[in-house]
Amino acid sequence: MLSVGIVGLPNVGKSTLFNALCAGGAEVSNYPFTTIDSNLGVVAVPDRRLDGLSKVLNPPKTTPCTVRFIDIAGLVKGASRGEGLGNQFLGEIRQVDAIVHVVRCFESTEVAHVFADVDPTRDVEIIETELMLADLEVLNRAMEKRKRDWQTHPAEHASEKRRMEVWKDSLERGKPLRTLNLDDYDHSELKQAGLLTGKPVLYVANIAAGGDIERAELLRQYDPSAQVLVLDTELEFELNELDADEREEFMAELGVAEPGLHRLIRASFDLLGLVAFYTVAKSKLQAWETPHGTAASVAAGKIHSDMEQGFIRAKVASAEELIEVGSLLEIQRLGHVRVVGRDHEIADGDVVEFLFSG
Length: 358
Hints:
This protein is α/β, with parallel strands linked by helices. The protein has 14 helices and twelve strands.
């Protein structure tokens, strides 16, 4: 399951966002460090294709993809040196796959801020600097431990040494590791090493209490490569408190097509380049997530390891076409079900039946 950490300075709206996402009970107040222990919640990924498939297939059970959100207590300047329980918080960030960085873009006399003014760029730089300093400390220790092997067997460890030197150079120049041209192997190595700044980041510009949307644009200028989502966390929390009919009516009055939280959950899902595919087995419709480019045999292993080992072939149809046609039998009659081998790359929206021995 994809795990996303919600980070930011104290009192920027992290816990309000978490509560809206998960209908959780995280404590929210106007004092820094309200969140001392991390809160965790699991939410379903909004998926119109899955909803459509459920309507036409009418299975007894439908299971969506899910994302685990962790509300990590506010980081402060000096966190890399242990300030504000920084070591604990940094350790929790190391466990997640992606980061949602909430940035305050609103003025409020009722909600205390760690600074006298609101400056999104400064706030982001503080968090980024602390994460880079923490990475440098971890990386320097790792390189020191590897030094003897590098000297004893230079050819054998040349690529590892070069890779770590590139990482260190980037951090010393004030560039997060995610700005490098990282491949899947790099991401795996970064995660294994416990480095933070290689994780993909989504900035949430919190414009609660009539915040300035122009401040949100500063985030796009600060990091053009990162995704930026503008949200009013207080409004999203209020929407989530309403029943479905009231929520729909309120959104219609606001001229909003869907809750911002849906966009956030999908954006979090997309951060790691995941696609969704669907299976219908034993009257159960289920969505599964897998990285883009995953082979059919590997995707089968998401369901059960025996299915990957005994993979024979798979039958694939388009979710959109199945919704339009209305039944599995009809889409088969039309000849729009493909038979593919183990190396077929699963595409976003595939409906798959895996055939295997075992």
